[in-house]
Amino acid sequence: xxxxxxxxxxxxxxxxxxxxxxxxxxxxxxxxxxxxxxxxxxxxxxxxxxxxxxxxxxxxxxxxxxxxxxxxxxxxxxxxxxxxxxxxxxxxxxxxxxxxxxxxxxxxxxxxxxxxxxxxxxxxxxxxxxxxxxxx
Length: 136
Known about the structure:
The structure is a single chain. By secondary structure, the chain is an all-alpha fold. It has helices at about 15-20, 25-30, 40-60, 70-105, 125.
């Protein structure tokens, strides 16, 4: 087991299997990142699917609009909730990858070459090897 992953990567129960691929604890994620918006792209799309599915079946079965509205509201709420947690899981996963890549780079500072500042156009040191072509 690597020091990088620590002991959190070994699941002990069925629900702890989520921790092994998240790699960052939820409390650490909440401390170090911005809050996940409730209405994000995934939650809006899944909420629209939750509304659109029952409405489509009402149109196909030719029911009136008030039939099964509890199911429509429930599925819309479930879609928004699912979208929020999917977005949070993806953000937490990529935050963990970023965190551990930083830790890897900090532990192995000597393995990376230092970058040289880019030379400016017209820098005499850079252009020293080329002689200007001039006609005399």
